[in-house]
């Protein structure tokens, strides 16, 4: 698997921000995410995210502020050396802990992986043969080991997204909990507290991670759907 590092230009970084605005207000804020993770450290961007709906004129206004006054390439390159060190750790961990589990996950390794650096903090991903990990680096001060842990979290997402998460229509909170349990078990990554008390805990165990994750998630979603349907019927 080839891995390369890219830094988004101003227009590409803006497109990520404006898409994050929509995703935040339609979905992610319901799971108590902070919009700070998607934006530069700038009050004008906070002002934009405080508004659930934006007119075309407002979008153009904030676009021009970001492109002409905020964006600096150096904001996205300051962690390059730590990212390069983290890549070495990731490649070693894939060989020793992940590659042998691919059959249990019904997963295949991407052919290429692009690391795209942009504004904010934390990470994101897109799956497929040519996968992407988004590092929001401008507000992130992780060292190489911290970046490695973030990298592995997003990489697990990539491996199971199409084969398991989309296949069984797993919602955001359960998806994150599955990846957290895998990360804690395989590379001792701290879990996200907001997802810790989860319906998934009974189903996603160290044993199924290593033997048949697909069947465990399938069973979980059958029970989860039945529970939600029962709750809906009761509330009527």
Write up this protein:
The chain contains ten helices and four strands, in the order βααααααβββαααα. With 236 residues, the chain is α/β, with parallel strands linked by helices. α5 (80-98) packs across α7. The longest helix is centred in the last third of the chain and has 23 residues, at 213-235.
What is the tally of beta strands?
Answer: 4
Percent helix among the residues? 55-70%
| Sheet/helix structural class | alpha/beta
Separation of termini? 52 Å
Adjacency order of strands in the biggest sheet: 1-2-4-3
Number of helices: 10
Radius of gyration: 19 Å
Strand portion: 5-15%
Inertia-based shape: globular
In short:
This protein is of the alpha/beta class and 236 residues long. Helices cover 56% and strands 11% of the residues.
Topology, please?
Blueprint: E1 2-7, H1 10-26, H2 43-49, H3 56-70, H4 74-77, H5 80-98, H6 102-105, E2 112-118, E3 122-126, E4 130-136, H7 144-165, H8 172-187, H9 206-211, H10 213-235
Parallel strand pairs: 1-2, 2-4
Antiparallel strand pairs: 3-4
Helix pairs in contact: 1-3, 5-7, 7-8
Give a quick set of tags describing it.
236 residues, alpha/beta, 4-stranded mixed beta sheet, 10 helices, 4 strands, 11% strand
